[in-house]
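User: I've been trying to design a sequence by hand for this structure and keep getting stuck. Would you show me what you'd pick, starting by listing the structure so we're on the same page?

Assistant: Good idea, let's start from the same input. This is the structure you sent:
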């Protein structure tokens, strides 16, 4: 059994855009998400791409009881900032199963960390893909630069540092 992680929508979308979704599922993680995240995958093919990994038993999709949904609403009421119900469902799930959250959402990150839950983002996932030798570092660096060129929400200095690190691994 690997590290238990609960993924947010934005992680799946970025990995799909980068062509690295399948590589993510090769990591030694027990990957899960919540059913509300699956519903957020709206663009053509996104939902099917992710659901293919559930069919292969590489992804667990958590569904909630009525009581748990009430607990998630209560968590949302206590949350600071603009946290969606879907975010609170991920937070609730991570708390329930002592899992790490994978997200790029700042409000979710802040609330979960205040609740002593480990939170990591896309850059962590990409670094794990490189560290485990799943994809060569130069290819991940190229894909990250391409994503960053289209989507500037990632921390620029961290992106630059990782790209430099991965490029130096290639030249050794």
């Amino acid at each position: 059994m690997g590290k238990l992680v609960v993924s947010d929508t934005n992680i799946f979308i970025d990995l799909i855009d980068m062509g690295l979704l399948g590589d993510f599922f090769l990591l030694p993680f027990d990957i899960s998400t919540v059913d509300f995240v699956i519903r957020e995958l709206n663009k053509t093919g996104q939902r099917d791409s992710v659901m293919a990994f559930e069919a292969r038993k590489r992804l667990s999709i958590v569904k909630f009881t009525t009581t748990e949904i009430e607990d998630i609403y209560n968590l949302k009421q206590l949350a600071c900032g603009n946290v969606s119900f879907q975010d609170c469902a991920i937070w609730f799930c991570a708390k329930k199963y002592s899992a790490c959250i994978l997200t790029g959402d700042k409000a979710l990150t802040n609330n979960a960390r205040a609740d002593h839950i480990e939170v990591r983002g896309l850059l962590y996932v990409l670094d794990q893909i490189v560290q485990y030798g799943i994809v060569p570092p130069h290819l991940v660096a190229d894909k990250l630069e391409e994503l960053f060129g289209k989507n500037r929400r990632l921390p620029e200095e961290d992106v630059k540092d990782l790209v430099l690190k991965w490029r130096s691994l290639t030249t050794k």
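That's my pick for every position. To get oriented when you compare it with your attempt: The chain has ten helices and five strands. Residues 135-171 form one domain.
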